[in-house]
Amino acid sequence: MSKTIGIFGGAFDPVHIGHSKLVSDIKKIFDFEKILIIPSGKPVLKNSHFADSIKRIEMLNVAFKNTQDVFIDDRETLKEKTSFTIETLREICKEYESKQHFSFILGQDAFESFKSWKNWEEILTLCSLIVISRPNFLISPDYLDEFKNNITQSSSDFLMKHGKIFFAETSMLDISSSEIRKKVYKKEFKKKMLEDQVLDFIKKNSLYKN
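^ that's the sequence the OP posted. Answer follows.
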């Protein structure tokens, strides 16, 4: 297997420059057949501080419309209940040949709680993990030691079989979607947090207004 299909989930509320930079960086490390960006379902609390599923998908399409081999997958937003990662992975695996290699992309903070995820051991039979470094974030050496047989820094070894864990050094930007939601209409908002076309979309649709 020389190529992998990347799976990148999250709220993307909103999608920001950190997300697009991350995708750009990991595409330089691995030869992806494609990357599926999967926005999570509706938030439990609905208010003006959150964008609905349709708007989040539209924002993602705006942000990645010129990025080759990146596709927005809306399956989780179409479900009435919370969708667990294991359920989404099972669905995706059924749609492809059994020999297809999948890479689930997540941040260091998410990886630190990975063993609390539903059926986490099964997840490692269905995909490998690409863990993205976060600014000023360190994972406990004892926790890493629990995965010592899974961790590899060889991209070729990573693609050999599922269950591998690769730590990707990227220029991950310290950007918070919640901070953007709070400040996007304020003078102190830093426009560099968002692609111009995404900022235009947010303002045109009056998203995140109090």
